[in-house]
Amino acid sequence: MKLIIIVILICMLALFLLKVPVYISMALTGCALMMATTGMKWSILSQYLYTGTNSFTLLAIPLFLLAAKLMNTGGITRKLFAFCMKVVGWLPGGLGHVNILSSVIFAGMSGTAVSDAGGLGAIEIRAMNENGFDNDFVTAASSTLGPIIPPSIPLVVYATVSGASVGALFMAGIIPGIVMAFIMMVVVTIYAVKRHYPRTKFPTAGEFFHALKEGFLPLMAPFILLVGIYGGVFTPTESAAMCWMCSFTVN
């Protein structure tokens, strides 16, 4: 048994060195190990692979990804950015705080760090470069809020594998996400004072309510999703469908 495991590990490392994708290398060597140790047939293995992916909960993943794509290609991210600019842009290092708050709101609809960094991040980085901020400031860190603040795709995957409650995992991610965002804003303030980063002027009531009016529907999407899930109105997968519908309708 030990010899077989060592051979399988060597084969996996060889596949890595040959630049075979990691998921293919692990799948091939894993299947070989199972067949060598348990005598499992390919027909049974294919049935297990299908059964493992035939999950209603996992349907939430492509729906959340589609919703994030719609938000990035449509006007939702720009509306969120404009609203956050009026809310926290006047703080020291204003665009840094805007970056974090935008990621918190966007995380409540997308659930991924890649969608945040790829869509909303592009708007944030361009604005920050134009205002004298460093290229490595905040954006990469704030995008990590996506997998923590619900709805979170990694939490959906974990719940599917472990059998844990998706709603309970989502509830558990709220406080850590908010704490992370608060700590990030404290760090931004310290660096803003140290590096003399600019801030925007304090908005007038008219400017604030105009931004709120433009971003009202996108801002309501996370609230509708979370209340729907915790109130038992719909499941996490159905909430992903609702998120997609909201993104499509607002765009």
Model regions low in confidence, pLDDT < 50 over at least 5 residues:
none
Element-by-element helix/strand order: HHHHHHHHHHHH
Oligomer: single chain
Radius of gyration: 22 Å
Mean pLDDT across residues: 78
Distance separating the two termini: 57 Å
Shape: globular
Helix run count: 12
Strand proportion: under 5%
- Helical fraction equals over 70%
The strand count comes to 0
Please identify the structural class as seen in this structure.
mainly alpha
Largest sheet, if any?
none
Question: Would you kindly provide a written description of the structure presented here, covering whatever features stand out?
Answer:
This protein is an all-alpha fold and 251 residues long. 76% of the residues lie in helices and 0% in strands. The protein contains twelve helices and no strands. It has helices at residues 2-17, 22-38, 42-53, 60-73, 76-88, 94-110, 113-130, 139-142, 153-162, 166-195, 205-230, 236-250. Helix 1 (2-17) runs antiparallel to helix 2, helix 4 (60-73) runs parallel beside helix 7 and helix 6 packs parallel to helix 11 (205-230). The longest helix is centred in the C-terminal third of the chain and has 30 residues, at 166-195.
